[in-house]
Write a structure and sequence with these properties.
The chain is of the alpha/beta class. Helix content is 32%, strand content 22%.
Length: 306
C-alpha cells in the first residue's frame, strides 16, 4: 500500500504554540500519521506520512489553526512508511536562522517552477543555493553558488562576508531550497539587508521536480530529503542515495563502493573520525537492526529523524 507523504510549512503568528501541541499530536496518532511537526510563534513546519485519509484529516486540522487557511502542501508517495514515530515539538523558530529581526512574512518574490529556468538562465541573475553542504553535494541547479554552510544559521554571516562579490554587476538574486521554507527567511533577510530584487522558487526543489519534465530540467543530481527516502529525483521518485547510520549523511553509489564504507558503521565522510570502539558499537547496532527487520519490527537505531 502506498504511503502519502506531505511536506508543509506556513509562517503565521501563534499566540500560544504550546496550546496547539497536544491536540495535534493526539490527532496524528489517532490517524496513524507519523513524522515531525514543529510549532513556534512564527508558524508551523514539518513532514508527515500515513494513509491518505489520515494525512487529509491532519491537514484539515492545521488549516483550521489561526492564519493557516492558505497552507500549501507538497505531496509525494512512498512504498513504505518513511518515519518511525510521531513528534510535535515546540521550537523558538520553525527554521533556525538566528536573525530575530527578520520578518519571514515579508519574503522575496515567488517564481513558479514553470518560469524558473528562464530566470536563472538570465546572466543578470545570481543563483544561490541556501541549503547545507551535504545537501548540495547530492544535487543542485546548474550554475548555483554553494555557500558551503553546515547549518542555515551560518547563511547570514556567509552572505555578509561575500555580499560585494555576489552582487557585483547583478540585477537580481534568485534563491532556492528543498521545500521553500528556508528561502522565505533567506529572501526576507536579503531584503532587510537592502537587496531590492530578490526571488525564490515557489514550492522549492520538490515542487520543481514534481512539475518540470526531466528533459526540460536545469536540475542536476537528486534532492536530499529529511526522511528514510534520503533523496528523490524527477517526479519525486526515490533516488539512489542511502544514509550512513553513523554520521547521518547521505551516501551515493560511489560512496558505497568505497573501501571506507561499511553499512551501518561508516562512510568515506566519517570513517576517519570514528575510533575502533565507536565502529564496534555501530556494527552491533546495525546487527540488532537487521535482526529486528527480520522479525518485522522497527529498531530505534534505524530512526532517521533522531
Amino acid at each position: 500500500m502506498s504511503v502519502t507523504v506531505a511536506a508543509l510549512y506556513h509562517f503565521t503568528r501563534f499566540a500560544d504554540p504550546a496550546a496547539l501541541q497536544g491536540p495535534l499530536l493526539a490527532l496524528c496518532e489517532a490517524q496513524g500519521v507519523r513524522g515531525t511537526l514543529l510549532l513556534a510563534e512564527e508558524g508551523i513546519n514539518g513532514t508527515i506520512a500515513g494513509p491518505a485519509e489520515g494525512v487529509d484529516a491532519v491537514l484539515a486540522h492545521i488549516r483550521a489553526l489561526p492564519g493557516c487557511a492558505a497552507l500549501e502542501v507538497k505531496f509525494s508517495a512512498a512504498d513504505t512508511m518513511p518515519f518511525h514515530r510521531t513528534k510535535v515539538r515546540l521550537k523558538r523558530e520553525i527554521v533556525t536562522m538566528g536573525e530575530p529581526l527578520v520578518d519571514p512574512t515579508d519574503p522575496g518574490t515567488y517564481v513558479d517552477p514553470a518560469d524558473w529556468n528562464a530566470l536563472i538562465a538570465d546572466p543578470g541573475t545570481v543563483l544561490i543555493d541556501t541549503r547545507n553542504d551535504y545537501e548540495v553535494a547530492v544535487g543542485t541547479f546548474d550554475g548555483a553558488v554553494d555557500p558551503e554552510t553546515r547549518s542555515f544559521r551560518e547563511f547570514p554571516g556567509w552572505f555578509r562576508a561575500h555580499r560585494d562579490e555576489l552582487l557585483a554587476g547583478t540585477k537580481r538574486v534568485a534563491m532556492f531550497c528543498t521545500g521553500g521554507i528556508r528561502c522565505e527567511k533567506a529572501t526576507a533577510f536579503l531584503k532587510a539587508e537592502g537587496v531590492p530584487d530578490v526571488f525564490h522558487l515557489k514550492g522549492g526543489i520538490l515542487k520543481y521536480l514534481e512539475e518540470v519534465p526531466a528533459e526540460q530540467s536545469a536540475w542536476r543530481g537528486e534532492c536530499f530529503v529529511f526522511d528514510e527516502r534520503v533523496a528523490v529525483g524527477h517526479g519525486l521518485a526515490p533516488g539512489s542515495h542511502g544514509l550512513c547510520r553513523a554520521c547521518r549523511m547521505p551516501v551515493s553509489e560511489a560512496d558505497r563502493a568505497s573501501p571506507l564504507y561499511e553499512e551501518g558503521v561508516s562512510c568515506p565522510r566519517c570513517h576517519d573520525t570514528r575510533d575502533a570502539a565507536a565502529r564496534a558499537r555501530y556494527a552491533e547496532r546495525h546487527r540488532q537492526a537487521q535482526l529486528a527487520e527480520a522479525r518485522g519490527e522497527a529498531h530505534v537505531g534505524r530512526r532517521f529523524e533522531d
